[in-house]
Amino acid sequence: MKAKEYLHQAYRLDKRIQSNIEEMERLRELSTSVSSPSWGERIQTQRHTDALFVRYLERIEELQIKINDEVDHLVALKAEIRDVINKVTDIDERMVLRYRYVHNFTWEQIGDELNADKSTIRRWHGNALNHVVVPENPIVIQMLNSNEHF
Question: Residues near 125 by Cβ (< 8 Å), separated by ≥ 6?
């Protein structure tokens, strides 16, 4: 695994967690809303005996467990990434990596923090990636379900 791919895992996992939280909020809204009856013809091969809100609540519970597991993975991954970044000897390179991969700053935000222009930040970033040593057995975040895409 290349350094950039390894460091970028936390960002992708964080985005996946945020997406799951948004989905859970939509399910919460649906679980408390009143659905109107359908007066049209309905053909149903199986009859659901649970109320619709019960199914939403079950899905919310499943998502909450998944989110908690992903947050635990994110915390462990960020701790490992911080350790890897702290081994980079150049302070500017280390700060660029920290702002980019731990705090998810944009290039412009990093430039503002370090009082450097975008090209300098990108140069430091490129040099820093060459100095990152990916652990032999890194924490690698896999998709929890094969049908999830991110």
Answer: 93, 96, 97, 100
Tokens 């975008």 correspond to: 118
The C-alpha atoms of residue 40 and residue 90 are separated, in whole angstroms, by 69
Dihedral sign from CA coordinates of 98, 101, 105, 111 = positive
Q: From CA 111, how far away is CA 107, in angstroms rounded?
A: 6
Q: How many other CB atoms are found less than 10 A from the CB of residue 98?
A: 19
Domain boundaries along the sequence of the chain: 3-33+54-131
Question: pLDDT 10s digit of each residue in the chain, 150 long?
Answer: 899 999 999 999 999 999 999 998 988 888 777 665 555 565 555 655 566 777 888 888 999 999 999 999 999 999 999 999 999 999 999 999 999 999 999 999 999 999 999 999 999 999 999 999 998 888 876 644 334 443
Give the other-Cβ count within 10 Å of 104's Cβ: 12
